[in-house]
Amino acid sequence: MTYKELLKAGEIKAQENKMEKTAIKSLLLFASGKTPTELYISLENEAKEEETDKFFQAVESYTINKKPVAYIIGYTYFYGYKMKVTDQVLIPRWETEELVSNILIYYDDLFKGQTVDAVDLGTGSGAIAIALKKEEEKINMIATDISLQALEVAKENASLNSADITFYEGSWLEPIKDKKFDIIVSNPPYLTNTEFVEDIVKDNEPHVALYGGKDGLDFYEEILKEAVPLVKDRFFIAFENSYNKKRQLNNIIKKYFPDCLIINLKDSAKRNRMTFIIKK
Ligand code: GLN
């Protein structure tokens, strides 16, 4: 079969199984090892047998076993940076790219040009920490995670992207209680067991990175409590959060940081998604 025929056959399978047609091209790129341009100019050529086998296996994993494309091909892109992913880490989301852009805006607003100490809590694949460090060299970046397997992925990603980050294993701020921070960032697990979560997420991604207790807010409380003695005089804390928890989250924040400015931001799908706690 030609690459074009493979693509068509894969797309039909996707449609039959109500999966995204556009994902098939990524699987063909993966199976052929070609760049998008190389694939485009060889569409009419015969694919090798091992490429064909690898392609149909990947299509089956995606359309029948409902595995996320990023786990099948082993990587995704976040903020333009290539990130390796395994099923031990959450697949970085576009909403989280918006968190990163807003953090960079607040960095400019509060600290422009200054060297700052920042930490990404529950770093997972390392996506947030790496994007921040690459975009703003003046950020001294630390990242923590309770999962050793996740930290291994994060370290690999830091090295793939030549991002200078110090990693610590442990829960939230626990391993770095001797330090103080200008910026604390986290996208903690914030889903609840009772809300709707797509099967492709629920059946594949690590639950330790998804679920945040009864109301999805357990970890914000843990982080905020630990953060009180570890922030400098001027600082900001940036969270990603669930779209329907703004009021409850703000109440927890007021308990620990009563004299700070709280800013809730929407993502581009117009859902509450980010919270900034600021002390100028
Ligand atoms: N945004 C993720 C999802 O919708 C959840 C991430 C998280 O809990 N931090 O699947």
Which secondary structure elements does this structure contain, and how are they paired or packed?
Elements: H1 3-16, H2 23-32, H3 36-41, H4 49-63, H5 69-73, E1 75-78, E2 81-84, H6 94-111, E3 116-121, H7 127-135, E4 139-145, H8 148-160, E5 165-169, E6 181-186, H9 199-202, H10 218-227, E7 231-240, H11 246-256, E8 261-266, E9 272-279
Parallel strand pairs: 3-4, 3-6, 4-5, 6-7
Antiparallel strand pairs: 1-2, 7-9, 8-9
Helix pairs in contact: 1-2, 1-4, 2-4, 6-7, 10-11
This protein binds glutamine (GLN).
Glutamine (GLN) binds next to loops.
Key terms for this structure?
11 helices, seven-stranded mixed sheet, 20% strand, 280 residues, alpha/beta, Rossmann fold, 2 domains, two-stranded antiparallel ribbon, elongated, binds glutamine, 9 strands
Q: What would you say this structure looks like, in words?
A:
- The chain is of the alpha/beta class and 280 residues long.
- It has two domains: 3-65; 88-279, Rossmann fold (3-Layer(aba) Sandwich), CATH 3.40.50.
- The chain contains eleven helices and nine strands.
- The protein has helices at residues 3-16, 23-32, 36-41, 49-63, 69-73, 94-111, 127-135, 148-160, 199-202, 218-227, 246-256; strands spanning 75-78, 81-84, 116-121, 139-145, 165-169, 181-186, 231-240, 261-266, 272-279.
- The strands form two sheets. Strands 5-4-3-6-7-9-8 form a seven-stranded mixed beta sheet, with helices on both faces. Strands 1-2 form a two-stranded antiparallel sheet.
- Helix 1 crosses helix 2, helix 6 (94-111) crosses helix 7 (127-135) and helix 10 packs parallel to helix 11 (246-256).
- The mean pLDDT is 98.
- Glutamine is lined by residues 93, 187-191, 201, 210, 240.
